[in-house]
């Protein structure tokens, strides 16, 4: 039903884009700097360039009035905004007249759905599609790209990367649902992506097994996560053959039988741990998505690793590298991307250990945890920090809110529902409501959202969040 409505809306939307391209317009794609932002911006830019457009891509950490001012000053002929700008249609129209479209999946106010007479907002929710789990911005950009030209169906594999990057693998055992599933079928049908049920280790294609286990933070296993030595001895003692011909074997190279032995070893370890629930073993097994066209042992072969690399590029201020990779660059760009992702992991690791060692940084009442990242966490890394914290056993079950003071004097917040959280609160609605009440901007999804507020409003904002979390007006459905 939603997809029929979407198909109908895609026609005039693509006609608009075609005419912009035919006019020889200079197009600027403005996108978010996370994995979904980088993939969606790259997908639509690739499609536009293939259609003959002059087009560049730029990433920003969020859409706000100063970004819109810069767009206006830039004075390009046309703007395609991806993975950003929900609820800001009126601001775009005011600044850019009719020279813009948005392709997005974040929930938008009903008002914006009803007033989009010119069809400039291509947003999943408008067509009854749940943009939180059924399609990310990368999938929406792919729908536009493939409607522009069927040949762009080869970009379906990038939409798969965006879906795992946005944690939309929310079906049983990390499968895809809704439109993501359909796009995946296309990618499978074209031989671009293989799907298997497997142990989901970080670095499936690239890391020695014990390192992959140590680097896996979803689920977080106390005593193993980030503890390479423990992982090594656990696997060695379980008789797992970790090396072959003097070379470490990577998880993707182990047989089914060996994988069962690995899982058994981890399960036995978890049983002895007081901090980790036995259920994590279940969480370790799920569908993995392999990009068949990428080299074995490359960070781009496993879709989750690919998305992590893109996220790292964006968060560390090197989005251009991620965009180049998405648009087909390999060699030097891939090497740069790999270095960036190593640096990113080191930085994250030091943030998390500082947060837990400096106790004053966490205010936790058992239901909500407020984490103060002031002077520590770079604002572009906030989302990654809150995602990681939401998988930590220490904060299990909570609504987690992480903040950092930006250089411009505003506070940026990132919030997540932690593992095992049963709260029915919709974080996206809460962030939008409380940020707006504080004269800031915010939004997002039920389980992951963010905002930016002026610093004097901090206390009122926190009070608002605390009361809204228990207010049925802001519950998930
Ligand atoms: O920045 P963070 O990763 O915490 O964002 C979580 C989700 O909330 C993302 O999907 C992001 O695009 C969305 N968000 C938003 N408006 C903001 C900040 C974040 O819609 N001001």
Question: Topology of this structure?
Answer:
Layout: H1 2-22, E1 26-32, H2 35-50, E2 54-60, H3 65-74, E3 78-82, H4 89-96, E4 100-104, H5 110-114, E5 121-123, H6 137-148, H7 156-165, H8 178-189, E6 193-199, H9 209-215, H10 228-237, E7 243-244, E8 247-248, H11 256-271, H12 280-284, E9 285-291, H13 303-315, H14 319-326, H15 331-357, E10 362-364, E11 368-372, H16 382-389, E12 399-405, E13 410-417, H17 427-437, E14 441-444, E15 448-454, H18 458-468
Helix pairs in contact: 1-6, 2-6, 2-7, 2-13, 2-14, 3-4, 6-7, 7-8, 7-13, 9-10, 13-14, 13-15, 14-15, 17-18
Bound molecules: cytidine-5'-monophosphate.
Quick tags:
477 residues, alpha/beta, inorganic pyrophosphatase (n-terminal core), Diaminopimelate Epimerase, Chain A, domain 1, 3 domains, 5-stranded parallel β-sheet, 15 strands, globular, binds cytidine-5'-monophosphate
What does this protein look like?
The protein has 477 residues and is of the alpha/beta class. The chain folds into 3 domains: 2-168 and 176-191, inorganic pyrophosphatase (n-terminal core) (Alpha-Beta Complex); 198-353, no CATH class; 358-471, Diaminopimelate Epimerase, Chain A, domain 1 (Roll), CATH 3.10.310.40. Helices cover 44% and strands 17% of the residues. The protein is built from 18 helices and 15 strands. The protein has helices spanning 2-22, 35-50, 65-74, 89-96, 110-114, 137-148, 156-165, 178-189, 209-215, 228-237, 256-271, 280-284, 303-315, 319-326, 331-357, 382-389, 427-437, 458-468, and strands spanning 26-32, 54-60, 78-82, 100-104, 121-123, 193-199, 243-244, 247-248, 285-291, 362-364, 368-372, 399-405, 410-417, 441-444, 448-454. It starts with a helix and ends in a 9-residue tail after the last helix. The model has no long low-confidence stretch (mean pLDDT 95).
